[in-house]
Design goal:
Blueprint: E1 5-7, H1 14-26, E2 33-36, H2 39-48, E3 53-56, H3 62-70, E4 74-77, H4 84-94, E5 103-108, H5 116-121, E6 132-133, H6 138-141, H7 151-163, E7 168-174, E8 177-179, H8 192-203, E9 206-209, E10 215-220, H9 221-236, E11 249-251, E12 256-258, H10 259-272, E13 281-284, H11 286-289, H12 296-299, E14 306-307, H13 310-315, H14 328-338, H15 345-350
Helix pairs in contact: 1-9, 3-4, 4-7, 8-10, 8-14, 10-14
């Protein structure tokens, strides 16, 4: 039985907010603890989930994280893929448990970890035939060079688990481009598609990095939350059918897409909605596009291809929600509304728009 579920600051974030929504809907009888940064964040959680216990601190509150993890059965970190000290504290806390009743730690990484080759060689906008997987090729993923994005924190978790293998069971979930509207109490917005939509509107044209041949994989945030629920349920069952430890690495994808096609559709929708004069695409050199968004060369111009085999094979995960392309019209509309270029939903519903 689950005694406590500690979720880091991510419960008011995009991924964590939606994950908590799906988990609480499936298991409202479980005991939950959420760590939040301040009372403002806490009030958002309390309003939607009045029964959830709250503790206050941030990712640098190492003593708090260690203490709470030590008292938890399952810890889920939805807050940061890159805070090594926080990850180490959570593993350290769980290591206080016994071999008879080990603790489970589920960490959120990201497939930016697969972009190292393009980052190193600055081959932004070019295609790549390299496809990773989390089954036969899992060892390659968990031994990527330390310079890869998110890899330092992944390494902390894997090494911490190895040092306490009988007491700490870990799984790393590695999502790619996440999209659609979240269902959490605060941030319901992703990054890659919303930012591309916003900047397209601001620039008055579609945004493409160099040749635009970059390939990524995609996952709807609702499907991603389903995966987290399945993995947490397995943990509560004492591990279930899931893999834990050195091979407990889970990509989460529902197919590939080409960033040039996404850029084209964003421009088309922005033009159709009267937000830009024409739907032309402009190709930006990496150094130019980085002026529009600091991470643009990587998030729109580097390749990230990884096949999610483990979750499908072991947990029966079956992503089914709408695709990235199918959400672009809504994403553009939302960004335009935020910029005051369109009436909000409340005004439209009231008939005053």
């Amino acid at each position: 039985m689950l005694t406590k579920l500690l979720k880091r600051l991510g419960t008011t974030g995009f991924v964590g907010g939606d994950g908590l929504y799906a988990l609480y809907k499936a298991h409202p009888d479980w005991d939950y603890t959420c760590a939040v940064r301040d009372t403002e964040k806490g009030s958002l959680i309390a309003a939607q989930y009045p029964k959830i216990r709250l503790v206050y601190g941030d990712l640098d509150s190492i003593d708090l994280l260690t203490k709470e993890a030590a008292e938890a059965d399952v810890v889920v970190n939805w807050a940061s893929s890159d805070h090594e000290a926080a990850a180490a504290a959570l593993v350290d806390g769980l290591s206080k448990r016994t071999a008879d009743e080990p603790g489970y730690y589920i960490h959120t990484s990201g497939t930016g970890i697969l972009c190292l080759n393009d980052i190193t060689h600055k081959t932004f906008g070019e295609s790549s035939n390299k496809v990773y997987d989390d089954w036969d090729g899992v060892g390659e993923v968990t031994s990527l060079p330390i310079e890869a994005p998110h890899r330092p924190t992944d390494k902390v978790i894997l090494e911490g688990q190895a040092a306490h293998a009988d007491k700490v069971k870990t799984a790393i979930v590695c999502p790619p481009t996440i999209y659609d509207q979240g269902r959490g109490p605060a941030n319901q917005r992703s990054v890659q598609l919303p930012e591309l939509s916003r900047i397209t509107i601001e620039q008055g044209n579609g945004i493409q990095v160099a040749a635009g041949k970059t390939i990524w994989t995609q996952v709807n945030v609702h499907d991603l939350s389903d995966l987290f629920v399945l993995l947490i349920e397995a943990a509560v069952q004492g591990g279930g059918k899931a893999t834990w430890g050195p091979e407990g690495y889970y990509f989460a994808e529902n197919g590939e897409f080409l960033w040039a096609e996404v850029a084209k559709e964003v421009a088309h929708q922005a033009h159709r909605q009267g937000l830009i004069k024409e739907d032309k695409i402009i190709s930006y050199a990496p150094e130019e596009v980085s002026k529009l968004h600091s991470w643009a060369p990587v998030v729109w111009g580097a390749n990230s291809r990884g096949k999610a085999i483990r979750a499908r094979k072991l947990l029966g995960w079956s992503p089914k929600d709408r695709s990235l392309i199918q959400t672009i019209s809504d994403a553009v509309d939302i960004e335009a509304t935020k910029k005051g270029l369109k009436p909000g939903h409340a005004a439209r519903a009231a008939g005053t728009a």
